[in-house]
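Protocol step 4 of 6.
Sequence for YeeE/YedE family protein (Pseudogemmobacter faecipullorum) entered exactly as in the expression construct, tag removed. Do not edit the line below.
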Amino acid sequence: MRILTAALIGLIFGAGIALAGMINPAKILNFFDIAGSWDPSLAFVMAGALIVTAIGYRLVWQRKAPVLEAKFSLPTRRDLDPALIGGSALFGIGWGIAGFCPGGAIPALGLGKSDALLFVAAMLAGIWAMRAIRGLKN
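Step 5 output, structure tokens:
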């Protein structure tokens, strides 16, 4: 049931991203091009997501436990470590260069976009490399 629910939520998220046009890297890159052909549509998508998230959190935190779990699993760390800061910076740089984030690239795969395939392959290679580097440290 959990996998089916996760798949359904993922499909709804992907459909929303596609409907909003966020699988088009040009829209993302134009958002960052403030002095040129600026496109504010990404800001509207983000604002809508923040509103939905704020309402969702208010509703979820009124529950004693999640619907499909016995208890909430929350992160316990609150510090900003170099891995978090570096990973966030790499994410932002990659997003600004490619015009894709994972949320937009994965639905774009369904449309057979070759640039999305290249982005997802590079993303997976980066995940694998980071896991290998972390494995060497342990």
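Step 6, annotate. The CA atoms of residues 38 and 72 lie 40 Å apart.
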